[in-house]
Amino acid sequence: MYLAKLGKLNALITKKGIVYDFYEVKEMKSEKKQSFPSSNIGKKHEPPEMEVNGHVIKINLQGLNENAKAIGKEKSKTYHNYLTSGDPSHSKGYVGLYKEVAISSVYDNIDMRYYFEDNSLRYDYILKPGADVRNIKMQLDGSEHSYINEAGEWVFETRFGEVKNTKLLSYQMIDGEKKGIPCKFKKDAEGNIVFELGAYDHTKELVIDPLVYSTFIGSEVPDYGTAIVVNDSNQAYITSHYYAWMAQGGYGNAGQYNFFGWDPWAIVVSKFSSDGSALLLLTFIANLGAGQYGA
After folding, report:
1. How many structural domains comprise the chain?
2. Buried b (16+ CB within 10 A) or exposed e, 29-67
3. Higher pLDDT, 7 or 173
4. 83 within domain boundaries
């Protein structure tokens, strides 16, 4: 449905919940590995083969409404194009970018929203009057160790370290002021993650707001600039090679994976406004194959 990207994390918001793809990209060790010296910018180069180690975690919402609808909010003026050299049906143009995704009626009288804050991913459950918090059940797939720590944080382990659902905040707006409501993560008898709420006014809306945090998230992935041109309006076009990683074959299985090769390298064309303050578009040209990456 929607894809959110942070350094070393692809987060896919799906009809069943959310999929986290944590990954690390490293150049394969080789005596013949290619480099991109600044003195050769503009010349054709073949990007190096890369090694990707990853870990897919799925959080599936149990018993959710099948007719829940997701919409993007606060659309950006920037858009993306995704072009491939293979099947044209896999190419997409004018793909919109949004600051948040809202999902209505994920459970009866319960909505959700996903958004970024300070380079971290947050998600809210919005309980309308009459909602039952016991309907919210999150099932974890892909991690062998998940627990609630002494600080009340929901922690699951990946091959790269711990990921925490932390800074859990629950509140209601009462007379124009935010009133905190006691809330904590718990595990039910089936191993699902649920919320336990303190007393609150069931006639008013309530928000449950955790933060997804890991020291691993946010690092850079390979990106090599190759050329810059300026049009008659002084708008700059920049071409670069970008390792646009998405797990091969989709996200059918949770757990650890490894990948070696060329395929995810893409040419990226970026267009900036004349004063350089605004990114107007990004075009990704992918799956070109080894030896065809020159700009």
Report:
1. 2
2. eeeeeeebeeeeeeeebebbbbebebbbbbbbbbebeee
3. 173
4. no
